[in-house]
Amino acid sequence: MGLPTRPSTKGYTPVPVEERIDDGVESPQHEAEDDEDLYPTSAPLLSGRSRGNEPPPTIKRPRWYHKIGTWRPFCQSRHYASWDPPRKPRTWRQIIMFSLLGVLILSVIAFATATGVLAQETRSCNRGYNYQPRQNIYNSHVLLGNNYASSNGRLNFPRLYPPIKPSSSACEAAWASLYSIPCHEKIWNRSWDNGKHNSLFDPDVGVYAEAICETRCITAIKKAHQIISSQCTEEDKFDMADYFGTFSTDPGLEDGPLGVMTTIAKRVGHTCWQKPPTPSYWDNWNKDPYCVFVMWENWFIVDGMNAGNLEGLEAFEKRTRTTRSEPKKYKWHTFSDTCDSVSVSYGQRYIDRRKYGPSVNSTTCDWCTINWFERKLLSWKKDEVKDPKTGDIVSLPEYLNRIRHAGERCEADAWNRAWGKAVRKYKSSGDLPDDWEKDRTTDHIQVEAKPDTMDKLDDDDVDADGFFHASPEHRQVSTW
């Protein structure tokens, strides 16, 4: 019988034995049963304690807003933990970028703060010595204006304008009589005249139309225009030497009193243009807005008194470039600014269903819109109309075609009436040849013109002062 074989150790790996510090330490024994209530649990073993050589515990990284207080864009910190990744040196590009970002943020904050302060000051405007509880609050917002010299509701023309050169005592006396004209200061605003959006901060002509077209203002302007026209001539001019006042920087300032009153009379007469009302009981309660308000509200067009330009066509085409419709509805508009003596209220205006589209005869155009197109068509002057974008002189055929491209989107009968009137005018004057359209390939819808009030609003309906005086059945609602 042979000896027992020795176990092989090939491929054998001994099981590691964890060394315990408390090996050989016996668990504490309770010597008395009375101590059980004092020590309900046994003491922790040493094996549960750290030796101090483990990796550091995981530290939760701070959020982004915790780092704002320690952000130093212009210096590089040299102190960081050993486990943090190495930092790259900050470049000038990063410094400039962060600097611009900071300046932008500060600018936005400063602009918002200034806007809030100005708005607060507007709400609490100074009423001054001339505050009357039952009337408008008179205030002045013109450049270098002084409430004690001139303000809304009592404009002082000789105080704000330059003095007249010694020429005619009658003209000087007539000009001196215009010391308290009951109108709003916006009758002097020129930014609306050419129908151009000069700036985002231009005043809204639709808001100030109600203040400009008060009965007392229209009456005073017509009377002042008649007095100046009878007593002053073009030889009476302003003396601009040593003048520093409200109109010092006005590039369009007229030469003398006659030019001033002619321009203001024309501006007020155009601003107060309205749709002739239809006889109705409700006309005494809800009047139609002025056309300058309608054009701004419907098409974002500045309806200025000088119609001989191409301004506003792009805005009209932009609003009608897609086919859509609006259901019939009631609209109202209310605005009030006691600091600027402005109060507008058009309540419960019924708006019939409207349609929009880029094709011919696809857009609903109201009376004011057709009147705006007609005035443009009839206002071309040789070598005076320029392209708004390029500044080039626009010829009469090009002028008419560009207006037709937008205007023929309106209803065909109303548009063809205005178009035919303009073509007949220029052909009779010799500015437009008979065959000027032979190369035009675009189809044009011709619809027989229906009787309408537009045929009766000719140049004879405007008096010498530039004011509208239609027949009683077409007379405006407001004050004429």
UniProtKB/TrEMBL annotation:
Annotated spans, Disordered: 1-62
Q: Which residues cross the membrane?
A: 95-119
Q: Which UniProt keywords apply?
A: Membrane, Transmembrane, Transmembrane helix
Mark out the compositionally biased spans (Polar residues).
1-11
Where composition is biased (Basic and acidic residues), the residues are 17-31
Q: What is this protein called?
A: Uncharacterized protein
Protein's organism: Melanomma pulvis-pyrius CBS 109.77
